[in-house]
Every structure is written in C-alpha cells, then in structure tokens.
Amino acid sequence: MTPTEQNYCTTQRELLAVVEFTTHFRQYLLGRSFTVRTDHSSLQWLIRMREPEGQLARWLEKLGEYDFKVVHRPGRCHENADVLSRRPCRSTCPCNLNPILSSPQLCHQAVQCDFDDELVNNGPEAISPESCQVGVVQPAITACTSSFSGWTTDELCTAQAADPDIAPIKRWMKESEERLSWEDVSPCGPATKAYWSQWQRLYLKDDILVRRYYLNEGPEFYPQIVLPQVFRKSVMHQMHEGPVGGHFGVERTLSRLQTRYYWYKTREDVSLWCRTCTSCAAKARPLKRP
C-alpha cells in the first residue's frame, strides 16, 4: 500500500482490496458470477450506494464490470483467510487424546528455552530421537492444570471459600449431589443464583469448583475454574495485556479467557476492561490524520 492508501479508513481499505483483487484476476472473473466474502459488513451497503461520489464512484464503476455479490462472514468464522492469526492453541484444545501409546512417536511442540541451554548450544546432534519420544496421555482435567497464574490449589480453595458468591455453591455440592430448591437459594445474591442454575455443569475437583465449558455438541469440554473475585483483575490483565496477551479486542480476549476461567458476568467485566485499557486507547489510530 502507498503512504496515501495507508491513511484510508478501514472501510476504504477493505473496498480497495476488492478492487485490487478483481483487477488482478480480471481475465478469470469477467463473464462469470462470483462471491466476495468479507468480515467487514460495511461493504454490503457500500457496494449498493445509490449516489457515490469521487473516489468511491470511480471504484464502484470499475466493479460494475463484474457480476458478483458481497457476503458478510463474521471474523471468528473467517478462518481460511485469517488462518495464521486465528490458529488454535494446542495447549488449550479439548481434543480426544489416547492413553500412552505403545509405539514410539516423535512429537514436537513450540517451547521457550534459554540460549545458553546446553542442548541448544550443542546443536541437533546432541538430541537423540529417544529423548524426543513423547507418550500421549489422557489429560487429567483438573482445575490447577488450567491455571497459569501461579496459584496453588490451596490458594484457590481458600479464595473460593472466602468468596461470598462461590462459597455457598461449594458447601451445597459437598453436602449433596442434588441441587437445592429455589426456596433455599432465593435469599442469595444474583451471582450465586447464576451458579446454582448451572448446577449440572459444575463439579468439584481437588476441592476446587470447576465448570464444564462445551464448545460443540460432543462430550469434550474445557474445565473452567470458577474464579473468585480476588483473582479476576489479575486474570484479565494477563489475558489482555500480559506476556500472553496482545491487547486484542473483547471477543478474542474473552475466547481465550473462557478456556480457563468463568465467573458471573464475565463478558461485562472483560468488555469494561478492554474499553478502559489506556494502552489500547493511546495506540488507536484515528480515521484520518489531522
């Protein structure tokens, strides 16, 4: 893109991409119908504008040679175009894993290591195939394996027991597997009532209250720690702006958080956190340069 084109607003850049694409593949597209799928919904009405002017009119005149329709597809479903940026994280994938395999298999996984590590300095000849054999084990779905914040099981148990919204649920689950009646829950706060309504999805693991988070219709699920109030700001900081963050928007931050944690009104809290992030506000580019 030229320096001038870099100053275009998002909608202009999206339409410019369509113009460049159709110009490049003109010999293949003329005389046939095709579909333009985009994650930018504004292109749908922009193409149908009745009285365009200036640059927009010239672009639409170019596109008028072709027989096409614009279909909007949300960004989370735009995986073939954004495959690299939306590649799922293997460490959080709720896949079906088999018990330890009898036959040796060589597996690789991106790891972090120090440059002064002995194996790194010695080169690849120092690493034998036997040292790379990894047995695939059935994952132990525990609450503490889903946490990366450095909390111990005892710290989580203590924090949940001290949380006024979570503590009653833990106490009731220890007393009975049957859900309490509404008459017993009605005096409690809205958060406790929300947890109570999801009784079948909650369970205790190592004395930690965990929630099953299903992505699909299958039996696989993410174990979500029902996070106490005292840890929520720390988690949102790590997910949005920490070393594993990236200052993503609400949806991407929420989707990453939901594979590990859950609490009442998670979306509202994450949305407020992202909107009030000073770094995101400082780096946001204006639509046009002053």
Can you put this structure into words, describing what you see?
By secondary structure, this protein is α/β, with parallel strands linked by helices. It folds into 2 domains: 3-77, no CATH class; 144-281, Endonuclease III, domain 1 (Orthogonal Bundle). It is 39% helix and 10% strand. The chain contains 14 helices and 6 strands. The strands form 2 sheets. A 4-stranded mixed sheet has the order 3-4-5-6. A two-stranded parallel sheet has the order 1-2. Strand 4 and strand 5 form a beta hairpin. Helix 2 (10-24) packs parallel to helix 5 and helix 11 crosses helix 12 (250-257). The longest helix has 15 residues, at 10-24. It is elongated and about 70 Å long. The model is unreliable at 96-127 and 131-148 (pLDDT under 50).
Rounded Rg: 26 Å
How many strand elements?
6
Describe the largest sheet.
4 strands, mixed
Q: Which architecture of the largest domain per CATH?
A: Orthogonal Bundle
Q: Classify the beta-strand content into a percent band.
A: 5-15%
Spans of at least 5 consecutive residues whose pLDDT stays below 50 are 96-127, 131-148
Helical fraction: 25-40%
Q: Mean pLDDT, as a whole number?
A: 77
Number of helices: 14
Which secondary structure elements does this structure contain, and how are they paired or packed?
Elements (H helix, E strand, L loop, with lengths): L2 H4 L3 H15 L1 H4 L3 E6 L3 H6 L6 H10 L3 E6 L45 H5 L30 H10 L4 H9 L6 H4 L4 H8 L4 E4 L2 E6 L8 E5 L2 H13 L8 H8 L3 E2 L3 H10 L2 H6 L7
Parallel strand pairs: 1-2, 5-6
Antiparallel strand pairs: 3-4, 4-5
Helix pairs in contact: 2-5, 11-12
